[in-house]
Amino acid sequence: MNRSHELLRHERRRFLRQAGGGAGLVALAGLLAEDGFFPRGTAAERHAPPTVRPPHFAPRARRVIWLFMHGGPSHVDLWDPKPDLVRYAGQPLPESFGMVMTRRAVARNPLLGPIRPFKPRGESGLQVSDFLPHLAECADQLCVIRSLHGDSVNHPQSVYQMNTGGILMGRPSLGSWVSYGLGSENQEMPAFLVLPDPGGGLKGGPPAWGSGYLPAMFQGVTMRPGPTPLLNLQPPPGLSADRQRAVLDLVRQWNRQHLDARRLDQRPGDDELAARIESYEMAYRMQAAAPELVDLADETAETHALYGLDDPRTEEFGRRCLLARRLVERGVRCVQLYSGDTNGWDAHQDVAQNHALMCQRTDKPIAGLLRDLTRRGLLEDTLVIWGGEFGRMPMSEQGTGRDHNPWGYSVWLAGAGIRGGRAHGATDAVGLRAAEQPVHVRDFHATLLHLLGLDHERLSYFHNGLEQRLTGPDEAHVVQEIVA
After folding, report:
1. What angle, rounded to 10 degrees, do the helices at 351-375 and 315-329 form?
2. Residue numbers of the domain that contains 210
3. Of 4, 77, 151, 472, which is most buried, counting CB atoms within 10 Å of its CB?
4. What is the CA radius of gyration of the chain?
């Protein structure tokens, strides 16, 4: 009896100890789940098609059109007038600006004044360069951020930072985060579409619009330039709709069986396979929706002229701007449209020649896009973004060009309740560095998400043991002066 009693006492202690430890683990798991340590939802839910999802709070914007000027447009020649740059053109950069340069470089790279004059535009008097006569007429709709700054002087890293929040490839792009956070309003089209420049050669490549560690279905889907933006929309000759549907159903069944088997074996779900399953279904649905979408024949001659489709100098970019309007009109959440091939706006040798060409191609189509969105009532809840990966130096390069400048440059926003006709922040006297109300790229991203009704701290995805965000682990702030 005594031995039995002793064994019972030890068993009771072991039971209490194990039960207490188990209860502690359950409590810890609950706390970690509340803090977002574990992935949200089931694997199927995390890989579900991007249907409409509610924002964190009432949004100003329901959709985004991002006009990305690849190569780095010169802010001091387009959006940021600097009287001192005019006054001291041809002279060396003063040492007080803190730019470390050799005497030879100072002598060889004096300050270069703005190529074309700035003038007050519209009722607001916002100053815009003569490079952009059509956008100058839309000045009262534009909020120019003149104090943006980033962390890299090189094209690929800066392209990644402007698109994904980090200078290294592998992070999800803004469009992917928006698609992940809000889903799509059109189940026949992807939530995030990209219209690259026909010259190709983006410095940084497709990772700029990739989904990174988000499920692959949230990556940007590219549309080809020209009259056939999407290939292979029609089924092969002789394949009936019923037979095509039967083939797709069988392939989907096999793929699902394989994917479910991986999950039952407690192996990570094949993200690419899940995306492939959904892409087959999306492609099938697009066969009905896309041909009408990319056919611009139903647009009026006046609309074609508004976008510059009647002029060979503006026809190509104007076609993509008009396509962007048609996409957001039909519920596509995010459209990114690139201007500039391998070199684009990268005016190292001759700013006057380079920017005259690039502005001529894009100025009228972008102004036409703003006017068209306005008259259709779409600009009220469409956020339009214009900008590149960085700006350009106030000093000359090779006499008539300018080098890269990530330390202070300009972008502008329009629509979605943005109060136009104003500038936010400022660079220093010659446009070298952000000096007043500086806006880092991560602050810019936090502000864009805020306009879309998304809290940048709450929009996250569990990856590699951490809750990952567009704005990264560093502190980021919404620029309230822009959204107020």
Report:
1. 30
2. 43-231+292-483
3. 77
4. 26
